[in-house]
Design goal:
The chain has 23 helices and no strands. The protein is mainly alpha-helical.
Amino acid sequence: MSEQIAAKETGWMNRALNTIEVVGNKLPDPAVLFALLMGIVWLLSWLFSGVSFSEINPRTGETIQIINLLSGDALTNFTSNIVNTFVTFPPLGVVLVAMLGLGVAEYTGFINAGLRSILNVTPRMLLTPVLIAVGVLSHVAVDAGYVLVVPLGAVIFYAAGRHPLAGIAAAFAGVSGGFSATFFLPSSLDPLLAGLTQTSAQILDPTVTVNPLNNYFFTTASTFLIILIGWFLTDKVIEPRLKSTKVDGDTSQMVSMDALKPNEIRGLRAAGLSMFAVVALLVLSIVVPETTPWAAKPDDVLPGVSPLLTAAAPLMKSIVTIIFVFFLVPGIVYGYVSGSVKTHRDVIKGMSHAMSGMGYYIVMAFFCALFLYAFAQSNLGVLLAVKGANALKAMGLPLAMTLVGIVFLSGLVNLVVGSASAKWALIGAIMVPMLMELGISPDLTQAAYRVGDSSTNIITPLLPYFPLIVVFCQKYVKNSGIGTLVALMLPYSIAMLVLWTAFLLGFWALDIPLGLGATYDYVPAR
C-alpha cells in the first residue's frame, strides 16, 4: 500500500519517466543492441534492395538505391574493413587520447584538489547554470565537451553533495542539447553548415552566398535560453526525481569536500603556473594568424572565417592533443610538488588506470562503429531523410508551420543519422531551395535545422558519444543503462524542441537579425 501511495505522489511526469527508464533498461546491453540493430539493417537492406525508389540523393544527383548488405561483395567488403572501421571510429581516438591526460590529472589528485578549491568559492545555487554554460562553450573545442565537461559535471555535483547523475544530465544538456548554441565564440560547425547551405542554395540561385556566421546572433542568444531551460529542469525536475536513486559506484576515488592540505595548496599553485605556461606558449604560437603554422591554408578557408577557426585548421584538428597536454602537464607538476607522485612510473600508472576504466566503452564503440558503418553503406538513412523532406514539402503548410516542420523533421532524422553535417547535406539540398521558392532565406532555414538537430541529440542512442555517457552514469549508479539516460534527458529534449522553436519564431516575428549578412526573406537576383 505504501508503495502505491508513493507512486501516486511522484506525479504523472515522474511515472512516465520511470516507465521509460524501466523499459529502456530492459533492452539488451548497448553493445548487444548495436549488434542486433546491425542485423536489422542487414535484413532491411536485403528486403528493399530490389525496390525502385524515385527519390533523388541530393549529394549524387542519382536515384536512391538500397544496397543489399547480405550480398557476397558487400559481406566480404564489410569483413575486410572491420578493423579499419573500428580503429578509425572518430569518437574512439578522441576519447582515449583525452582520457590519457585526464587520467594522470585525476590519478595524481590534481582534478580532485582543483574542484574542491573551486567549489569553496562557487555558490551552490550557481553550479548548474555555470556547468551548462561551460558545456555550451566547449563547442569551440569541437567534441571535447563529451570527454571533458560531462564527466566533470558528475564530479562537481557529487563533491557539492548533489546527485552525480544530475550533473551528467546538466552537462550533457549543455554540450549536446545546446550543440548549436554559441557562447560568443563561433565553433567549427558554423562554417561547415554554412558551406553546405550555400551549396544547396546555389542549386536554385548560383549567385547566393552565405556568411559562415549567418546564425551567430541567434545561436549566441540561444545560449541563455539553453542555460535557463537546463537550470530549471535540472534543479526542479531531474534532481528531485533522482533522490531515490542510490549512488552505489566506487566512491573511493570521488571528490570529497575536505579542506585542502598544505601540500595540496602548494601543488595547486605549481600546477596553476604550469597551466598558465602551456596556455601562454599556445597563445604566442598563434598570435599572428596569417603566419602561424596553426592556421589553415588559404584554399581551405571560407570568406569571413578566421584561418584558425575553420575545420581544416591544424589548431582545430589538434584540440584533443591540446586537452591531453593541458591536463597532463599540470597533473604531473601537481603530483611531484604535492608528493602524490614519486617517479615517472606513477604517471604511467595514472594513464593505465584511466584506460582500465574504458574497457566497457571500447567494447560498445566496436559494435557502434560497425552498426553506423553498415547503416551508412545501406543508404537507408539517406532514403528516410529524403522521404521525410519530400513529405513536408508536399503538405504545403503556412510559412511558420513549415519552419516548425523543418525543426521537427530535423529532430526526427537526427534519431537515425548521427552526423550534423551529413543530415544537412541530405535534407538541406531539398529544404533550402524549396523554401527559397517560398521566399524564405537559406539563413532562416539553416537556423530551423540547427534547432531540431540539437534538441534531439541527447536522446538518440545513435549519437556516437551516447554509449560513453552511459558509461559515465554507470560509474556512479551501476545499473544505469540506455533507459536511464534517455529518461534523464527526455525532459530537456522536449523543452528545448518547443521553447527553442518558439524562440526562433520570435526572432523572425520581431525581425531580429539572425547573424552577419543574414536575411529572413529571399529575393531572387534580377
